[in-house]
Amino acid sequence: MKEDKDMAKLVWDKVGERLYETGVSKGVVYEQAADGSYSKGEAWNGLTAVNESPSGGEPTPLYANNHKYLELMSDEDFGFTVEAYTYPDAFAKCNGESDLAPGVSVTQQERKPFGFTYQSIIGNDTTGRSHGYKIHLVYGCKAKPSERNHNTVNNDPEAETMSWECSTTPIDVPGMTNPCAHIVVDSTKVTSAQLTALEAKLYGSENGEPTLPLPEELATIFNGNG
User: Fold this and answer.
1) Which domain of life is it from (predicted)?
2) What is the reported pLDDT for 155?
């Protein structure tokens, strides 16, 4: 008789479980208000890449009695770089621009903090790129000045690509030990009602303008609309 423990045997690369991630789309930038809330979301057209670059989380060993005693871990920091052909008007202040007059922008001004969301695709071996997607929510963002090159038009035309290296300041999340700046929602693991409620917030609806909900509101959405 086969033992019950055989029922728990691991299987690799089962049909439907060969997952991968690709793409970036539906970028939105949100103005951050003085009270820390985010509103007035605006679509980011021409988005070509979002490169995540977390840092920190490095161990520092401590020694005692001639042996390794323990390790202390440094705090983690979430950074990212946005690449695009253009940027929305709402991002101008985040890019250090202020209007002197309609159509006249002054650069090198204070860079306003912002919130940012984008989607990446989840694919698998049976349904391809229609399997699902992840919604990335990023809080407390600030964009750093970056290089931009203007080149002459020639026989090999190309559009200028702009990029911004961004840092973040983490915020408290209910039920979590540490604050964070990056939250990911997997469409394949939440209910359709929860996903609809979140997207109505992020992208706007007939009932309200697009906003970036804080973690407290996210907890309400995903613990109350199951």
Assistant:
1) Bacteria
2) 86
Amino acid at 5: K
Q: What is the mean pLDDT of the chain?
A: 92
Domain map of the chain by residue range?
4-224
Contact (CB, 8 A) for 44 and 28: yes
Amino acid identity, position 53: S
Quote the CA–CA distance of 116 and 37 in Å, as a whole number.
12
Identify the bridge partners of residue 164 per DSSP, sorted by sequence position. 82
Both tokens of 29, joined, read 């930038």
In this prediction, residue 6 carries a pLDDT of 59
Distance (Å, rounded) from C-alpha 165 to C-alpha 223? 34
**117-135 pLDDT, tens digit each:** 999 999 999 999 999 999 9
Identity (one letter) of the amino acid at 129?
R
* CB-CB contact of 135 with 187 (8 Å): yes
Pair 136, 186: CB distance under 8 Å: no
3 state SS of 123: strand
Residue 147, phi then psi, degrees to nearest 5: -70, 145
Of 115, 93, 95, whose CA–CA distance to 182 is shortest?
A: 115
Instruction: Give me the numbers of helices (H) and strands (E) for the chain, helices first please.
Output: 2, 14
Counting Cα atoms < 13 Å in the Cβ hemisphere of 35 gives: 3
Residue closest to 38 by CA, chosen among 209, 154, 198, 152: 209
Using the predicted structure, report yes or no on whether residue 220 has a pLDDT greater than 60.
yes
